[in-house]
Write a structure and sequence with these properties.
Elements (H helix, E strand, L loop, with lengths): L2 H17 L4 H16 L2 H10 L10 H13 L3 H8 L3 H6 L7 H11 L4 H9 L10 H18 L3 E2 H17 L3 E6 L1 H5 L3 E2 L2 E7 L2 H10 L3 E7 L3 E6 L4 E7 L4 H9 L2 H13 L2 E4 L2 E4 L25 H7 L15 H7 L13 E5 L10 H10 L4 E7 L11 H17 L5 E9 L10 H6 L2 E5 L8 H12 L6 E2 L17 H11 L2 E5 L12 H6 L4 E4 L10 H11 L13 H8 L1
Parallel strand pairs: 4-7, 10-11, 11-12, 12-13, 13-14, 14-15, 15-16
Antiparallel strand pairs: 1-3, 2-4, 5-6, 6-7, 8-9
Helix pairs in contact: 1-2, 1-7, 8-9, 20-21
Bound molecules: 2'-deoxyguanosine-5'-triphosphate, calcium ion (2 copies) and zinc ion (ZN).
2'-deoxyguanosine-5'-triphosphate binds next to helix 11, helix 13 and helix 14.
């Protein structure tokens, strides 16, 4: 187990103890222990475990040191397993409702006997929760809203989660000897930020064994269809998956059809008809009749000869169009642009040279500055921008001015040491305070290489106040970019309301960048707004907002979303090589 997995278990123990109403000191010891483990480098943790010197770290007592050592050695902890087994699983599930923490769960369980989300919903609906001490009408309403959102959102899945489920399935399909070609289709292939169900398409002359494999693969909870042209399953993760099986000659048209979107398909079919062609999942057909006009009234018109196409590019070409990448197939003008030859040359993963807006253990990140730098370098990035939280973000352990100055010095020293090829830019994610002023003064901002400004408080201000607040923030000196425009958390909470057009205009006027926050929960600013914004001259930066080393790779997800927003390499700041980037920031 690495330090992050160990810390996660310690945190979990803290939560479980809190649910049991254990001694607050004991709870805090586990929470603090988790943080201390995270803040250590992997090497230090190994060294201390080997030397038996964990207890020397202030805040780690004997009992904790023993548990950490056991986790490191065996990857398990008997104490944790027993603790988990002693608590009804419904209580842990209730923690996923926004605003419901361990103390509330405990009170609900002890005083009202509530041990599941369903029971909680019922109690709220009957007004029994509002009467509890520490709850009230407002809390009750918020809990209900949280439960309703969960149900509504529960039908969709974050793109990354869907991708992680889908990749091994596609790989499995491709390994089957009967499979000639296999692809993802649907919203996953179009890189929509959330995915309803997975769609797979296979070309085969022998569909039965393929469908049989699909419904029997590990992770299948329920089979909802099992035929030779289509099979559907529900997976353990709750995601549903459709497999379509077609003869090889039909693969291209079926892939196009099942990639969608529906709007794109409808528009393309109309275009085909206008050109004397008929397009469907079965193929592209010439509409001319071979069979004369003798068909019965109302019978489907027999198709004319098949127009063979070897690739999607060829399919588009037959319709007089340039190739439209899947990300753009949303029926939002891509067909017109493909006709006029004005489709953008989309940014690609390989264009990204470095990443801004990343956290370290100095605030709420899980890896040290050095670990983050090593990881960025391993990804082949030329530069890494650090942007820890500012002092008002207390819950995220935001840096005081003195601590930020120390961090700047540490970053300069690291660059000077030559330890890493990857250059580190010193930045901040500076809070935009409720009145639009900034959490750090101008002279300190001037010492940094770059400044991200973000809203993390007073979310319910209303559209007009929030818009003015953000514009005021980005109009101040030494502001490089605006973080997560709406603060949304996909499938969890809506963002705060803003007038995006006005903020974009203000950013363009001041030469401020708006980030494309590439965290899978955010993907904010939304792809639907980028095409128009970039046309106004807005630059973006694809920012992973990484809180641990593995999350640096989120920039790849951000590239997918940028492509969906029609963005070119030129519209993305962090495609600049290091020397140009330094110049631009200066
Ligand atoms: P999702 O699953 O809700 O995230 O979105 P999609 O786009 O993956 O939709 P899905 O799985 O229902 O269907 C996959 C594709 O199949 C869809 O993008 C386009 C095509 N398709 C499905 N139903 C229709 C339809 O009624 N008309 C047309 N033209 N295409 C359809
Ligand atoms: Ca789908
Ligand atoms: Ca589907
Ligand atoms: Zn933030």
């Amino acid at each position: 187990m690495n330090k992050i997995e160990i810390a996660a278990i310690l945190t979990d123990i803290g939560t479980l103890l809190e649910l049991k109403g254990e001694n607050p000191f004991k709870i805090r010891a586990y929470q603090a222990g988790a943080r201390l483990v995270e803040a250590m480098s992997e090497e230090e943790l190994d060294r201390r475990i080997a030397a038996g010197t964990l207890e020397e770290v202030k805040g780690i007592g004997d009992a904790l040191a023993q548990k950490i050592t056991e986790l490191k050695a065996t990857g398990r902890l008997g104490f944790h397993d027993q603790l988990k087994a002693s608590i009804p699983p419904g209580l842990v599930e209730m923690l996923r409702i926004p605003g419901v923490g361990p103390k509330k769960v405990k009170a609900l369980h002890e005083r009202l006997g509530i041990d599941s989300i369903a029971a909680l919903q019922q109690a709220c609906a009957q007004g029994r929760v509002a009467g509890l001490e520490g709850f009230g009408e407002k809390t009750q309403e918020k809990i209900l809203e949280g439960i309703r959102n969960r149900e509504q959102y529960g039908r969709r899945h974050l793109w990354t989660e869907a991708w992680e489920t889908a990749e091994p399935i596609l790989a499995g399909l491709r390994r089957l000897p009967q499979v000639r070609q296999a692809e993802h289709a649907g919203s996953l292939r179009r890189r929509l930020e959330t995915v309803g169900d997975l769609d797979f398409l296979v070309a085969t002359d022998d569909p039965k064994p393929v469908a049989d494999w699909f419904v029997a693969q590990p992770g299948v909870r329920e089979v909802t269809a099992h035929g030779e042209t289509k099979a559907s399953v529900r997976l353990e993760t709750g995601i549903q998956a459709d497999l379509r099986l077609v003869p090889p000659a039909q693969f291209v048209s079926a892939l196009h059809h099942f990639t969608g979107s529906k709007d794109h398909n409808v528009q393309l079919r109309q275009r085909a008809l206008a050109r004397g062609l008929s397009l469907s999942e079965w193929g592209l057909f010439s509409a001319e009749h071979k069979h004369g006009p003798s068909a019965e009234p109302g019978a489907p018109r027999p198709p004319g000869p098949l127009v063979a196409v070897k690739s999607e590019a060829a399919l588009f070409q037959k319709l007089g169009l340039a190739y439209i990448p899947p990300e753009l197939r949303e029926g939002l003008g891509e067909i017109e642009a493909a006709e006029q030859g004005t489709l953008p040359e989309l940014v690609e993963e390989a264009d990204i040279r470095g990443v801004f807006h990343n956290h370290t253990t100095a605030s709420d990140g899980h890896n040290t500055l050095e670990e983050m730098t090593a990881a960025a370098q391993a990804l082949g990035l030329e530069y890494l921008g650090i942007a820890d939280h500012s002092k008002s973000s207390v819950q995220a352990r935001g840096l005081t001015e003195a601590r930020l100055r120390e961090q700047i010095a540490a970053i300069r020293a690291l660059n000077a040491s030559g330890r890493f090829q990857c250059h580190v830019f010193a930045g901040t994610e500076c809070d935009i305070l409720p009145d639009g002023s900034l959490d750090y003064p101008e002279d300190l901002r001037a010492e940094l290489d770059y400044v991200v400004v973000s809203v993390h408080s007073a979310f319910r201000q209303g559209r007009e106040d929030m818009t003015r607040r953000i514009i005021r923030a980005i109009e101040q000196p030494h502001v490089t970019m605006l973080g997560h425009l709406t603060g949304r958390l996909l499938l969890e909470r809506e963002g705060y309301e803003v007038d995006a057009d006005r903020i974009v205009d203000a950013a363009v006027a001041r030469g401020v960048v708006i980030e494309l926050n590439a965290s899978p929960w955010r993907l904010d600013m939304d792809w639907r707004l980028w095409r128009k914004a970039a046309a106004k001259g807005l630059l973006t930066s694809i920012n992973p907002d990484a809180h641990r080393t593995e999350q640096l790779a989120y920039y790849r997800l951000g590239v997918g979303v940028a492509r969906k927003g029609w963005l070119t390499k030129a519209a993305v700041l962090n495609t600049k090589p290091l020397a140009q980037m330094k110049q631009w920031l200066a």
